[in-house]
Amino acid sequence: MLPYGRQDIDEADIEAVVAALRSDWLTTGPEVARFEKAISEVAGGASATTVTSGTAALHTAYAAADLAPGDEVVTTPMTFVATQSTACAFGAKMVFADIDPFTGNLDPEAAAAAVTDKTRVIATVDYAGHPVKAPEFQKLAAESGALFLEDAAHSIGSTLNGVPVGQLADLTTFSFFPTKNLTTAEGGAVVTPRADLEKRARNFKGLGMIRDPKEMRAEDEGGWFYEVQEFGLNYRLPDVLCALGTSQIARLGAAKARRQEIHDRYNAAFKGNENLTLPGVEQGAEPMWHLYPLRVEAARRRAIFDELRNRGIGVQVNYIPSYWHPVFHDMGYKRGMCPNAEEFYAQEISLPLFATLADDQVDFVIENVLEIVGS
Ligand SMILES: *Cc1c(COP(=O)(O)O)cnc(C)c1O
Fold it and tell me: Does the pTM exceed 0.70?
């Protein structure tokens, strides 16, 4: 089965991991700082704190935002549930706002209508790799005293008006799961241009242990001494995996170019087909495409999906609207809240897209889609 996404591991990656295994540091060593520097460079200079997954990155970002019970998070249903579950872990209330079906991203106007004086975070997702309308969310967050969080699990390497993802929001989170744009097997990062948020993020991912005597409340007792002033967790990404990340991130530009070529090839083949809706691109956006989200007639989506899978094409659906999950239903969230997201979901099929996908494989997907859908 041709997968919808997969990793690209080369000999340099393997050598980098082996070198880390042979070194003195399996974790908390120099490879962590090296990878964080490389992420920061891709993210336009904002600081990067590595963690063990994209989910851990979201959890850490909400901790940095000091999210507390009673706070509200205005967010998109068109995402993986981790965007919300990690905020719910702090007792926050999710307020879902609808998407713009052109890109699948949270609609700034819908988000603005959902903001209240309890809104602490506006949590967006760069769906498929396409950056959200960051200037509008930044303005909305500033006006409402909230923080703007960009779940960029899909979009490391993307830019908006020339500004890299990582510099667009107060807090940006990356995932390095194998299907994403670069991988450390499991891994993630929190990126922020704000020193205060970086400090809170680092503290949370390191069990809350404070070792700087200047920041201690009690007298420093000696070289062994540390204090915990707020609880954190152990979300440290090991050197072995950071070494893989540094090797991977060096090829991010080439991966972006190849993903764009594949996207263009799909677009060229499907353009003008009245049975299909293609992914939209806004002016100023230069996405690093993580997904190719094709939309078909909702009534035929299941049959088309099943037939593509029968033919060895590992399509996927991204995403089931978050609040459809029973965990939200049990809290009183009802279907029908965000009609654009529900319609988008009902039509969506993600086609295979990854850097090592060959042109003849792309053509195989195209032929089968057109044969099944009709042109
Ligand atoms: C993958 C993903 C996550 C979670 O990342 P993991 O590394 O799998 O924990 C969060 N949000 C979105 C939008 C994702 O696609």
Answer: yes
- φ, ψ of residue 336 to 5 degrees: the values are 100, -10
Stretch 342-348: mean pLDDT, rounded? Answer: 98
Q: What is the pLDDT of residues 263-312, one digit of tens each?
A: 999 999 999 999 999 999 999 999 999 999 999 999 999 999 999 999 99
Task: For residue 375, name the pLDDT band (cuts at 50, 70, 90).
Answer: confident
What is the β-pairing status of strands 119-125 and 72-75?
Answer: parallel
Q: Is 293 helix (H, G, I), strand (E, B) or coil?
A: strand
Strands 159-160 and 171-175, bridge-based pairing: unpaired
Is 341 in contact with 98 (CB distance < 8 Å)?
A: yes
SS3 call for 47: strand
Residues 154 and 259: beta-carbon distance below 8 Å = no
Quick one: pLDDT band at residue 160, thresholds 50, 70, 90? very high
Task: Confirm or reject: Cβ of 177 under 6 Å from ligand 1.
Answer: yes
Q: Ligand 1 pocket test: pick from 177, 241, 318, 322 the residue with the most ligand atoms within 8 Å of its Cβ.
A: 177
Q: 123 in ligand 1 pocket by Cβ < 6 Å?
A: no
Cβ distance 154 to 132 under 8 Å? no
Please name each of the domains of the chain with its CATH number. Answer: 2-249 (3.40.640.10), 252-373 (3.90.1150.10)
- Asked if residue 104 has its Cβ within 6 Å of ligand 1, the reply is no
